Amino acid sequence: MTAQVRAREDRPATLTFFERRGYREVQRMRELHLDLRTANHADHWMQAVEADVATRVRLTTLAAEIERLGFTAWERLVALHNDALHGWPDPDPSPNANASRSAVAFRETLHGYGCLLDGFVVAVLRDEYVAYSGFGQREGDARLLSAGTAVRPTYRGLGLATAVKAKALLWARGGGYELVFTSSANPAMVRVNEKLGFVPGLAEVRLVKDLHVAVDGS
């Protein structure tokens, strides 16, 4: 059993308070934003989309895949998502961490993000989905929010995360969207976002305390 607390990195007194009480830092969720009105990275985004790795897969949208395959598209997408969970940072080391989801549950999660299916990019290799990245938008909010980026472990380190996110950004800019916000606790994904022009902001520090240790030692 564990207890989890969160505090912004610019609150050192709060962090010290919890650390002195046995909490340990397990991750930092970094906020990042991109102003599409002033960003001058379109050429770099296009290069990422046209890179060798991107030409060896088919970059399409979730909207197009649903039209082509129906519910099978969701089944293939959740298979990618569940595979990609391996190695994802988890702030609370529990037995059910990063549990697999069903296609229906994952579809509802994305709908909850206000997922924009036309801007949700999927990389397809033969009949397998190998990477995705997309945006959502809440009602009444002009900003785009990340609906996630994922790559199957077998295909990581090849530039696919950069390619699918760059393709999604080109779609967003072409659609007249102005601001994009995302966050990540994965240092590699933070670097991908920065390479694409995102500006890092504050991080939320996540700390965990093992309550079994506290009880046994009391």
TrEMBL record:
Q: Which SUPFAM superfamilies match?
A: Acyl-CoA N-acyltransferases (Nat)
- State the InterPro entries in the record: Acyl_CoA_acyltransferase, GNAT_dom
Instruction: Report the domain of life of the source organism.
Output: Bacteria
Any one GO MF annotation of this record: acyltransferase activity, transferring groups other than amino-acyl groups
Alphabetical keyword list: Transferase
The N-acetyltransferase domain extends over 64-218
Membrane-crossing residue ranges in chain numbering: none
- What name appears for this protein in its UniProt entry? Acetyltransferase (GNAT) family protein
